[in-house]
Amino acid sequence: MSARVSPELANKAFLSYGRCCNHEVFFEDFYKTLMDKSEDVRAMFANTDMVEQRRLVRAGLMWLIMYAQGSEGSKIDNLARTHDRHHMNVHPDYYRFWVDALMETVAKYDPKYDSTLDNAWRETVKPGIEMMKREY
């Protein structure tokens, strides 16, 4: 399959992801930032095993990057299905909170963060996020 974003953008996000993963608290801070964005989003996580959730988002971010790079979409299809209105019911409007929380957390933990990297991340996760919104 062909890349859904330019290889340069996806590679910038991938390298940034690696730098962020060097900080174990990155994923904890991501969820704290996300939950601070909306009372509704916070309520969605009320009975969630957050250790498992952090493990899942770590993999999910990698899947979004790989999808942007052109890999087949079965992992993203599965994410879309589990997050749709019949399962976790993650409304499409909530993804803006997710992306904004991700970027705020990347800015905190990636020493190479700047507006160019912010754009690379946003463009890289966009194809997968857009698929998840469509499948809602």
Q: What does this protein look like?
A:
This protein is an all-alpha fold and 136 residues long. 71% of the residues lie in helices and 0% in strands. The chain contains 7 helices and no strands. The chain has helices at 7-21, 25-35, 39-44, 50-68, 74-83, 94-109, 115-134. Helix 1 packs antiparallel against helix 4 (50-68), helix 2 (25-35) packs antiparallel against helix 6 and helix 4 (50-68) crosses helix 7 (115-134). The longest helix has 20 residues, at 115-134. It is globular and about 35 Å long. The protein starts with 6 loop residues before the first helix and ends with a helix.
SSE layout and pairing:
Elements: H1 7-21, H2 25-35, H3 39-44, H4 50-68, H5 74-83, H6 94-109, H7 115-134
Helix pairs in contact: 1-4, 1-7, 2-6, 4-7, 5-7, 6-7
Short recap of the structure:
With 136 residues, the protein is mainly alpha-helical.
Descriptive keywords:
136 residues; 7 helices; globular; single chain; mainly alpha
